[in-house]
Specification:
Blueprint lengths: L1 H16 L9 H21 L4 H26 L7 H4 L6
C-alpha cells in the first residue's frame, strides 16, 4: 500500500507541479510510473477479486487513503499554493 501511495503522489507531482521544476522527468519514466500504479492496483484487485466487500468497502478506502495522504503531503510541501481559496477548496484537509 505504501508503494502505491508513493507512486501515485510522485506521478501527481510530476503531472501537476513538475512543470515548475528545472529538472524534468521524461515521458518514458512518467509512463513507467503509471504502469507501475496500474500493476499494483491490479495485484490488489486480484487479491480481493472474489470478495464483494472489495468493491463496496476496500477499494473506496484505498482511494480515500491515497487522497488524504496526497492532500497532507502537498499542503505541507506547498503551503503558498494552497493559500489560494480556489485551490484549497478542492482539498479534503483544510
Amino acid at each position: 500500500m505504501a508503494r502505491l501511495i508513493g507512486l501515485v503522489l510522485h506521478f501527481v507531482y510530476w503531472s501537476l507541479f513538475g512543470k515548475a521544476n528545472k529538472l524534468q522527468i521524461d515521458e518514458f519514466h512518467k509512463r513507467q510510473m503509471f504502469l507501475s500504479i496500474q500493476k499494483l492496483t491490479n495485484e490488489i484487485e486480484k487479491k480481493f477479486k472474489s470478495n464483494k466487500l472489495y468493491v463496496s468497502f476496500i477499494m473506496p478506502m484505498i482511494i480515500l487513503t491515497i487522497r488524504r495522504e496526497a492532500d497532507m503531503v502537498f499542503k505541507t510541501r506547498y503551503p503558498s499554493f494552497f493559500e489560494n481559496k480556489e485551490f484549497n477548496s478542492v482539498a479534503i484537509i483544510r
